[in-house]
Give the backbone structure.
Amino acid sequence: MEKKNRGVLAVVSGFSGAGKGTIMKELLAQYPDQYALSVSATTREPRPGETDGQEYFFVSDERFREMIAQEELLEYAGYVNHYYGTPKAYVMEQLDAGKDVILEIEIQGALKIRKKFPDTLLLFISAPDAKTLQERLSGRGTEDEGTVAKRLSRACEESEGIEAYDYFVVNDELGKCVAQVHGIIQNEHARVARNLEKIAQIRAELKAFERR
Amino acid sequence: MEKKNRGVLAVVSGFSGAGKGTIMKELLAQYPDQYALSVSATTREPRPGETDGQEYFFVSDERFREMIAQEELLEYAGYVNHYYGTPKAYVMEQLDAGKDVILEIEIQGALKIRKKFPDTLLLFISAPDAKTLQERLSGRGTEDEGTVAKRLSRACEESEGIEAYDYFVVNDELGKCVAQVHGIIQNEHARVARNLEKIAQIRAELKAFERR
């Protein structure tokens, strides 16, 4: 039986309002055996409805500092008094088992992970244009103008980092976008760099035939 | 209206008997508006059934030397008294028109083209294993043992160059393989490096909104 290839580590970032979350949910719903979504650890309190291990692993400040010290995190960052980080063990286990692991993190984290694992795939999801983006941000109807303005300002900052990514995926139509993200991650398995063993084996077999 | 992206230049190489030709034919049949297949120029005589401009552009030695001198070829090589080369003008026209151009050439030519155009995509098509390859080579039933042996020896040589390619595509099942080659070439359009203008535009629009 063929040895299962190691999974692809993919980071998905994108503007708030670009539909990232929905795309991730769809990918996991359509291909539950192919993908694993990494769950971040955080020191902030769970909000009503949030479950430990689902949205986040909720840990104490002390435990988080221990995770940093023990190198149990692939990357971490602090926002407004709280820490957020990506636990390493789960990601490594899933990759070893041949699952493609998706991390939904922002650019600073993406770059840290790529530095540690150069074959990480970086995808940036965008709305078709800034106007659509602004409409989607406002259109949720749950946020006031101040929040929308803050998100827009954050989107401006994030837009400075897009050039560091591998793929720029426009979410114009959800189904098409999900299929594209899936295709990009799956094609990564066909990269020559990921098939060196198989290539060496075919080469050896061909030479064995030739010598007969 | 959105400006049509420049086409992707893709080189497809692979072992004789790996099904390259069939894959190309299927791609063009299924997506006639998306792809253009480059036709090589050669100084060899047309064989019965071959039409000028179809399988090859059949040219004289003198005309071929002129094409070399005038830099009308993207790459060329000599085999057993004859020259083969890729006319540049057609490829450039089709890329400018937004078509993805596929060159079916061997590794030396592939590397020459990549040197001139670093964003050329290199795909190598293989049978699932050496045994299948040998069976396919013999199985055509039209070649004697000597020819099969010669092809096998050539396959051994070609196998040395696979690491220079981007993707290693296994042709296990034709339909699946065609879809994969299509996906790989199409996803190339979503590469960040191919969308710098679009990214700059979204960035500018976001900043304009923010300043309001």
